[in-house]
Amino acid sequence: DRLNKIIENANRYNTRISLTIIAHEDDASDKFLNCKNCWETLSKNLSNELEFKKIKDVNLNFEYAEFTDDITADKYTEFVGFINKRLKEKFGNDQKLVVSTFADALVKERVTKIPDVANVADAIFIMGYDFHRPDSEKAGPVSPLNGKGVYAEYDIETMLNDYLSYLPPNKIILGLPYYGYNWVVKEGIPNAERIPGTDDIGFSQPQTYSAIMDTILEVKPQIKWDDLGKVPYFIYKSPSTNSTREVYYENAESLRLKYELIRNNKLLGVGIWALGYDGGYIELWNLLGEYFSNGKQ
């Protein structure tokens, strides 16, 4: 099938593939973390699946919608250590366990307690996005390079410096977005106030890079640059509802600045949420190739 072909081709080109374990329901995650027999079951099933698919790397992606207490975070750290130990016993030290974490895990009570969880994982994947969301009070950068305290309470540079004070750069993967958000706003100004959506005027919503490029081709807006966030944005009137809309997103120029940050800090690498969101547009692929292929960082 298609997955087997992908794995086969990846192995041929010496490209590592990671199986991702996702837990995005708070109650289910709580029950699992409090059930050590469940850890055993997962460990066995995971090893069997990895062996069957001829891969060995794993990404743990536990995302709580709400903040968590120390007890829950400590249990998660224990679970990460347990799984990593079992994986190393089965596949050897070359096996890699990566843990995904919210960008603000060092300043808010998240299930990934840094640096504890970093001490029992091989690498940390920082989800460096969603600094603004569709339900934010105002439109703004999804992954702002700067602007802490102005547009958002955090930014990428501040976040990365915080992480680097706790763990070495070769344990950090910086995750970046191939998407943006398209808000219904009160007026056509930068960082405009979001207004509640309706069936008549439309709703604030996420858009992939491909969808954003299609929107640009359709409405031909003036592309502007956010000097603090170091990202592009544009404002336009919806052809279908006549509502004022504002879009913040990433393009090759803004991603290049973040790739330079990765290179200059000698991080383990970059992660993308998500490859394929660029559709048939090739500029982001070309930029990835420029920075991260042929033996580059």
Tell me the total number of β-strands.
Answer: 11
Q: Mind telling me which CATH architecture of the largest domain this is? A: Alpha-Beta Barrel
CATH superfamily of the largest domain: Glycosidases
SS class:
alpha/beta
Provide the spatial order of strands within the biggest beta sheet.
1-2-3-4-5-11
N- and C-termini, Cα separation? 32 Å
As a whole number of angstroms, the C-alpha radius of gyration is 20 Å
How many domain regions? 2
How would you classify the quaternary structure?
Answer: single chain
Mean of all residue-level pLDDT scores: 96
Q: Would you identify the regions where 5 or more consecutive residues have pLDDT less than 50?
A: none
Q: What is the number of helices? A: 9
Main beta sheet, described? 6 strands, parallel
- Overall helicity: 25-40%
CATH class of the largest domain: Alpha Beta
Large-scale geometry: globular
CATH topology of the largest domain: TIM Barrel
Percent strand: 15-25%
Order of helix and strand elements from N to C terminus? HEHHEHEHEHEEEHEEEHEH
Pfam families: Glyco_hydro_18
InterPro entries: Chitinase_II/V-like_cat (IPR011583), Chitinase_insertion_sf (IPR029070), GH (IPR017853), Glyco_hydro18_cat (IPR001223)
Domain GH18: 1-295
GO biological process, one term: carbohydrate metabolic process
